[in-house]
Amino acid sequence: MSASETTLLEARNLTRRFGGYAAVSDMNLTVRRGTIHALIGPNGAGKTTMFNLITGVLPPTEGQILIDGADITGSRPDRIARLGVVRTFQGVRLFPTMTALENVEVGRFCRTRGGFLAALARIPGRATGTEAATSRRAKELLERVGLKDRGQMLASELALADQRRLEIARALAADPKLLLLDEPVAGMNPVEVHEAGELFRSLCREGTTILITEHHMSLVMAISDLITVMNYGRKIAEGTPDQVRRDPEVLTAYLGAEAAA
Amino acid sequence: MFDPYTESVLIFTGINIVLALGLYLPVSAGLLSLGQGGFMAIGAYTAAYLTTEMQWPFIVALLCGGAMAGLVGFVVGLPSLRIKGVYLVIMTMGFGEIVRVFFLNFEPTGAASGLGGIATHTTLPVVAMAVALTLLLCFQIRGSRIGRAIEAVREDELAAEVIGINLTYVKVAVFGLGAAIAGIGGGLYAHYATFIDPAQFGFQRSAEIFIMVVLGGMGNFVGAAIGAVVVTVLPELLRLGHAQEWRMTVFGALLVAIMIVRPWGLLGVRR
Amino acid sequence: MVLIQQIVNGVMLGASYSLIAIGYTLVFGVLHLVHLAHGEVFMIGAFIGLQVVLLTGGGVTAAIAAAAVSAAVVGVLVYLAAIKPIRARKGHFLAPMISTIGAGVVLQELATRFFGGEQVGFPVQMDSQIWHLGGVTLTSVQLVILAVSLGLMLALHLFVTLTRVGMAMRATAESMVISNTLGIRSERIIILTFAIASALAGVAGVLVGMSFNSISPYMGVDMGIKGLAAMLLGGLGNVYGAMLGGLVIGIVEVISVAYLASSYRDAFAFFVIIAVLLFRPRGIFGSTDHVEA
Question: Domain C3-279's class?
């Protein structure tokens, strides 16, 4: 396959300034289809800003973002979601007074159709074909992430690890090509982290490309195909887990100059 | 079937249910509007003008009133994309007052003297029908794809956006629809009261409708309907001497009390 | 009429708006709350002032003093009964504001009960004199209004900049948490803020009564919204912005009456609100903060 066919996400010379401060500076990032790509760096390196830029939450000050070759720079988040790029949030952002099932069902919004007229036209109390399909798919996804019996619980009532899983299920409901995971295992115990890693791997095998940012190094090293390291808004290293592990710049960034020596 | 007094109470209750549900829709998306009186006025005046001056059939005039109010609602709803929370409340207050001042000066509908001689087309069956249809509308929306999207927008706009929900569509639609329903409520009101003037649709009206929805709990359309029933019927039940005059005072105090004790109203935020 | 005259008239009108707007913005500054019963406090001040004038035959000074004190009392009561109990709990973030709507309704209804629902005349016991200053005509009533409003604004400015209590108010507005750690009793400051804000509104009530020669229980809603517009224009939390915002709205309102349709003058403030919210939500002079929205 040519390079352009394998490239799903491309960020070119991406810069985002807040007043005089550059959160992201001249970032180039290429995410290949069918891979798990990690974006790591110390706190404040600009990882979440990158996520915000890619998903349209923030417009870039300079640079371009392309999904499957299409320029989406400056597009609104809902349009980008419809193009197949969906994210989770560092501090989970669920819909607290809706049930887990409803959270996932609403995740399917951009893949279904039917507005007010459709709502009025159905037989009262009976789900339409689309609604029933949405409900089925939502239940499947809940089971997939390990929340099978918690569909009727309110999102706010779930434990944190379950909330993270729910957010992933909701993101998956949109049938994303590219799934952006923002620190998805923060606050999880080792067993949960391992399960999450297995889930991400299996999702990737089934065709979902994943861009993940995490501080949990063993997870990152274990599941990533490619790692990009950021610091102070710039890329300081990129490569396979082995390459990055030994890169002196990376060690300096995380551990200080003496460790690299 | 009913004695005139009971029938009157029932009709007003029905009209208030329609008005409350009209406010419930934008509230269910997180848009608090204190300007429903304005939309009610637009619907009332439009419908009344069409039946009295142009001799149009009642139902057609009623729907036109709703459509007119809805159209204005779409326009007013557009700024709601950028104006949020308290700012939106203030803006809708301002809008309500603009409408009132407009009709105060609009000669074709009588300006400050109001519009009278409106035929009493609003009967109990008509109101009952309107209530049933509006309740059905809310019920249908609730369990549907669009209903979930509306809830999502209320809960967390950013999260709703990143999963592909178009905020513009949801907010403007819900605002316009709520306005249209308020307009229909206004048309029903006009054809029962037989005389309307701008003072009847001012801030006090908007506040009253607001109180109905808050009273019943802002998370549930049934709650809004119940709130409307309470606000309309309770004063009638307390018809001891001058209790009627203290109606709004009591409701104002009730609003304060609810905010202190149970901000989500009688029915709570869910089901 | 000459433009200068218009502007002067506008300043007279606007000065009252400013006094009300200052109240809104002071409360917003300390509590991040839009106090929707403030217009009713203004109205109550006007009526109490009227009662004093009618009962004692006293002059303007008595009316103003009575209005200021009674409005301050009412304002503080509103805080204690409708706002303070809510802030202590978690709930809908707009709950305090909704509560002030309820309080406003109660105040308006009570005023209608006690004072009747009609407009009433506001007699002014003052020697009426006319002054001509270089092409501009002023009545003594207008001069009094101007003097009182500007005087109060100046006094407020000096108070918050020079006195310890005033500085404590500013500190509390900046950050209640930090000022608490510095030993400032925020509860007292809040009450003082409500008292001052309400007193100013009460005085404005008397001034408006004097300039229009009539007051009504419904003037609270009308003036309230104009005060809100002035506050928004000047930037939420910005006291000097509120002062200027009121004057601007007064001037533009008078000019629009003179050169455009006079019957729509009331709507003008509402257009200002919408325009500000759409194009410059922080106000012309910048806001101290955003309401949690």
Answer: mainly alpha
pTM, 2 dp: 0.88
Residue A153 CA, chain-centre distance (Å), reads: 24
For C252, the token pair is 């533009």
Tell whether B16 is covered by a domain: yes
Q: What's the mean pLDDT in A107-127?
A: 83
Q: Is B265 on the interface with A (CB under 8 A)?
A: no
- Nearest beta carbon to residue B152 from set A106, A127, A131: A106
Residue B163 lies in a domain: yes
Give the CA dihedral C92, C95, C96, C101, nearest 10 degrees: 160
Task: Let me know: does A107 contact A95? Beta carbons within 8 Å.
Answer: no
Q: Could you tell me if B174 lies within 8 Å of chain C, comparing CB atoms?
A: no
Rounded CA-CA distance C9/C136 in Å is 10
Structural domain includes residue B222: no
Write down all domains in chain A, each with its CATH number in brackets: 3-84+176-260 (3.40.50.300)
What's the ipTM? 0.88
Number of domains in chain B: 1
Q: What is the DSSP letter of A99?
A: B
| Inter-chain CB proximity B145 and A119 less than 8 Å | yes
Name A155's Cβ contacts closer than 8 Å, sequence gap at least 6. A94, A95, A96, A97, A98, A99, A100, A103, A163, A166
Partners of residue A170 in chain B, C-beta under 8 Å: 163
Averages of pLDDT over each 10 residues, chain B, 271 residues: 85 96 94 94 95 91 96 91 82 88 87 86 92 94 90 92 92 95 96 92 90 83 92 75 70 86 61 41
Its domain, for residue B57, covers: 4-200
Place of tokens 């759409």: C278
Q: Is there a domain that residue B268 lies in?
A: no
Give the span between the Cα atoms of A236 and A229, in whole angstroms.
Answer: 6
Cβ contact (<8 Å) for B159 and A78?
A: no
